[in-house]
Structures are given as C-alpha cells and as structure tokens.
Amino acid sequence: MPDIDLDFQDDRRDEVINYVNGKYGGDYVAQIITFGTLAARAALRDTGRALGISYSDVDRVARLVPATVDITLEGALQNERELMEIYTQDEQVKKLIDSAKKLEGLTRHSSTHAAGIVISREPLTDLVPLQKATKGADSSSTMTQYSMDNIARIGLLKMDFLGLANLTILNKARELIKQTKGIEVDLLHLPLDDQKSYNLLSSGETSGIFQLESSGMRRYLKELKPANFSDIAAMVALYRPGPMEHIPTFIKAKNGQEPIRYIHPVMENILKETYGVIVYQDQVLYIVRTIAGYSFGKADIFRKAMGKKKPEVMQKERQNFIAGAVKQGYSEELAVKIFELIEPFAGYAFNKAHSVSYAYIAYQTAYLKSNYSVEYMAAFFMKHVGDQEKVQTAVAECHRLGIPVLPPDINASEGNFSIETDLQGRRGIRFGLTATKNVGDGAVEATVEARKTGGKFTSIEDLCRRADLRGMNRRALESLIKVGALDSFGSRSSLLQGAEKILSLSAGQQRLKESGQTNMFDLFGQSQSVPLPSLELAPVDTPLKDRLVWEKELIGVYLSEHPFARAASQLSKDVTCFLSEVNLEMAGKRIIVRGIVTSARHLNTKEGKPFVMATIEDLAGNLDISVWPEVYQKSRELWVEGNILDVTGKVKLRDEKPNLVAEAVWTYKESDVSQNQSISEKPDEKVKAPVND
C-alpha cells in the first residue's frame, strides 16, 4: 500500500486520531510500535554504566562521537582523530568501545511511533498482534506489535499523522491579524507574486521561516534571490544530501552567470523549469521513461532500486537502462552520461508534490512575517512559550525588525504573549506571565481575570484583596517578582522579602470574601469595604546585576538591560563577526568573537589537567567555547559568568553545531579597546579575519 504522510497543526493532531477512531472504529485503527535501538552514543553510555565507569569518563568519550544519523563506533574511530588516540592509548576506553560495539543496533526498548497510524478494512485482531499503547499515549488506545516496515510488508495501510509547529503558528497569526486589524487572511489563496515576501527571502533574514532558516539555506537564498514560487520549491528540494552539490550550478544558471545546459535536446522539456538541473524525483521518472522507454511503474522501481546504493543492484539497473536507451534509438555513450547524471538524485530527490507543499508553507510564513510581522512574531512566541532558546531567538529577531518586546507585568500581561499598543500607536509584544519559569496557567488565571474584571491593581495590597493567589505557590510568586512583573508595587528585593506576607494576606482576604466579611454597613446603609492592612514592606534597592541574573535564569533573556549592549556598540574591526553569524560553513576557519560568559563548566581531562567548556553570548546569539588545558592555564580567572571576553580560535563542529576551540583569550575593556588586558598572547595581525588553513 502507499505510504501517506499528512501534516497537521501540532496542537490538533489528537483530533485527527480521534476522528479516524470514530469514523472507522477502534477495532480497525491502531498506532504503531517502534523499537528503540542502541545507537553509538547510547551503547557507550549503557556499557559504561554496566562496567562501573564514572559518568564523566564515559561522557568524555561519548562526546567525541559525532551526533549524526547512522554513525557507528567504527565509523567514529575512523573519522575522529581524538577518539582514535584515546582508544589506542587508554586500555579502559578501549574496553569500553569494544564492548559497546557488540551492543550497537540491539533493541533497547519499545514505544509508540510518533506519527504512524494503521487503518484497516478488517478487524486488526485478525491481521496483526496488538497491545496496549505505551505510557504517555491514550490509555484506551492500542498499538501494533509489528513495526512500520512489517506493517507495510503484510499489506496494511500506514498513514503518518505528523504534528507541525509551523502550521500552528500560521493559524495563530491568522487569528491575531483578524483580531488586531480586522483582516481575514486566506492562507490557501495568497498572491504568489508578493514582492515583500521575495525581498525577505532574498535578504536571507529567514529566522522563523519554515524549511529556510538554516545558515546554509540563508546563504544560498541570498545568492539565488528567488523571484518566483518555483525557485522556493526547487531550493527546498535541492537542500539535502546528494542534490545539494548542484545548488551553485542552479543559482548561476538562474541568475544568468552561466548558460543553461541540457545533455540532450529532449531533456529541455523536462528540466526547463529548474534551469537544466535535476531537482525532483518526478524529473528522474520522466527522463527514464523518455530515454529508456520505461513505464511509470518500472521507472519508480528503478528509482527505488538505485536509492539502495547496492553495487550489484546499481550495475543491474545500469545495464537495463542502457539497453532500453539503445532500443529507443539513443547512443550507448549518451545513455551512460544520462545514467551518471541521474544516479546521485535517484535516492535522495524529493518528489515535486512534497517540495511544492513544503515550499508553500515556507511562502505562507514568509508572507505573514513580511506583511504582518508583529502578529507573526507574537504567534511564534505563543507557540514556543516555555522554550527559552526559541524565545531568545525570537527576541533577537524582534529587535532586528524594530518590534518592541515588553517585560511581563501583572497589570498588562496575559497568561501567554500578547500584542500591545501604546498611546502613540506603536505596537509591541508583551511577555506573558507563564513565559516565566515555575509559573503555570493555574497560578495566574485568577489574577488576570480579576484585573480584567476590576481594572488595574493599584498596590500590592489591592492585588491581595482582589486576586485569588491561592493557586500560586511561593516559588511562582518569587519568580514573577524576580522578572519584574510586580515592579509597579515596589522594588524586587522588597517584594521578595515580603513574599510570605503577600501570600498570607491574599489567603486571608479570600477567606473573608467567602464568609462575606469584606464589606460593612455604615449608619446610612451604604456599603463600605473593610480597611485593608498594610504590608509595610521595607524599602530595599535591587542591584541591576541581580535583576539581569534573575531575568536570564527565569525567562531566558535580559529585559532590564543587556549587559553586552555597550560592548556591542564598540565592536572593533578586530572582531570577525557576531556570534549568531558563526555557522557550519566556517569549520576550520580562525575567527575572533566577543561575548559575555553565560556558563562555564570547569572539568579535568583523564590526565587530571583542568579545562573549561563555556558558553558566551552577545545580543543576537551564543556560541560554545572549548578551552583546553594550555589556554585555560593562562586564562583560568576569566571564565566567570558575567565577564565580557574577546576570544580567538578555530571553528570546529561538535554535535552538528559550531564550536570554537580557544587559542587566546583576553578581557574586554569598555574604555579602550586597544588596551584590553591580555591574559594569553593576543592574536597577531594575520588572525584579524577568518583564515582558511
């Protein structure tokens, strides 16, 4: 049966599962089991526990294994020099890796597949063994005991119901646009010639744009400058292993920098849309049909067979293709050239329907971001509330777009993020109260409702009288105080010291309210509120440093003031780039960066030599830094949270992310960039810009 994938809003996926259960019946629908196997890193960690090796020693080895799909321990040994060195030099590490090799690929556990659903026309109990779904799924649902490959093999229909966050963001943005502007945006009928959208894509500023926000894709978009929808669809299809190496040719042909070439005139009709470059599976099928005379069915079998990359299969298909081409009247030499042209694409290329579908979602997100940026970014925040990394990225993007980001405020915030307009008509995005760590919906619902009903709270005592804070524990209240949500009632330190009094007074007021004792009658029969006791909080100043630490810890960003702001304004020509600009393509280059230390883990090598793994941050991003013993020895006292440092080093890939291996470190001094205090030797002239080694 065909394998059908469907993407839904991730917050409505359960509705679809309930729908098919209701429509076809519980006996005919089931989720699919999946078996978790021991990948390279997991095998190392489990083996290390069994052998009684300390976590830190195992972690040191596991981190040297690249976090790529299908990597094996043997492959890691061959490709990672540092791993091979400790394998050959340390007997304990050798035993660990050799033992782990024997476990690689074994089944470790079973769980419910994230997306797979089986729908049958006969009761599933007649066709496949079933069991109750694993913990975390609906307790009444069942799942097959066969994995998805075997489900397909016995002829059942498998559908993947995938939850896509971007669809949720699009729908929320559409609702916000209707609320704030009264405009109904029809996402299924957007104009495909919107210049703002193409300008956005061409600028490479695609943070939050579906499928197009990776650093490599941004670079290619800036070079391509897409001018129509077909260009977007082609980039979605090309940006994957195999076809990716043809992106430069596609861009140059599209921009007229080199001529569009066809290996044979008959190929023009098939490849004209993509400037002579094979982009889609469909094009492979049409080429095989046209040149070798295959049927569509046989052409697809050919594509799948080539995708397996087995030499004996490839040789057989090569011979069949050439024979078919010669029979069609083409020369053997041309047939060989065409086969070699399509070979890299057969196993990796997207089908066009997939590319166009994804490209349209990408275009929808670009359209809303470029035409309704406040609503789009607000929807992005709402979707990712609680995800501090996403929130931090979105705040940086709002700064770039000139959208004010307002702090949480008990007198202005909703539970989630919201759009707010000031007296001058400027629109910004207000942090929601639940964006604060330790604060859930239940803790703030009653407070927000009381404010909407009776207006803004005039004092901390007024808050205690009108809002039921019994759903808010002390930790939640202190978190709100620390991020500034109650700044209108006093300093954060004063309120923190009085947190217990605040909760106690509120609880007392709610008891009085329930007993009807909050009002009294005077001689004239008029109702008067019972006077509210004052909390009498001692005035205590809160240092800026404390406020910044709390904000970073609890909402992931600095809102009072970014401690790096002044340093950023004085970035000298010696600093190569912002941290957000360090990407995978810089691997092997030497760069100089500046940032504030946000975390520093002081560790020891196997030989007992100290080193540090740190993270530094600027206004727009962050970067992990590895400081090995030789450099660490000269800069030990600098690796303290809050210090602003300049670091020079080489970019290396670690866990599929750029990591900087420090070569020199020195403190940043606001007064005189040229007089920075050097702790390790300052870089010489040749490393003031990226250098390829």
Count of individual helical segments: 28
Helix content: 40-55%
Unreliable parts? 521-526, 671-693
Structural class assignment: alpha+beta
Task: Provide the gyration radius in Å.
Answer: 30 Å
Strand order of the largest sheet: 1-6-3-2-5-4
Mean pLDDT metric: 85
Strand content: 15-25%
Ends: how far apart? Answer: 52 Å
Shape: globular
How many strands in all?
17
Major beta sheet summary: 6 strands, mixed
Describe the structure concisely for a colleague.
With 693 residues, this protein is α+β, with helices and mostly antiparallel strands. The chain has 28 helices and 17 strands.
Report on this structure.
The protein is α+β, with helices and mostly antiparallel strands and 693 residues long. 44% of the residues lie in helices and 16% in strands. It is built from 28 helices and 17 strands. The strands form 4 sheets. The protein has a 6-stranded mixed beta sheet. A 5-stranded mixed β-barrel has the order 12-13-14-16-15. A 3-stranded mixed beta sheet has the order 7-9-8. β12 (589-604) and β13 form a beta hairpin. α4 (73-79) crosses α5 (81-89), α8 packs parallel to α18 (352-371) and α19 runs antiparallel to α20 (388-401). Mean pLDDT is 85; it is low at 521-526 and 671-693.
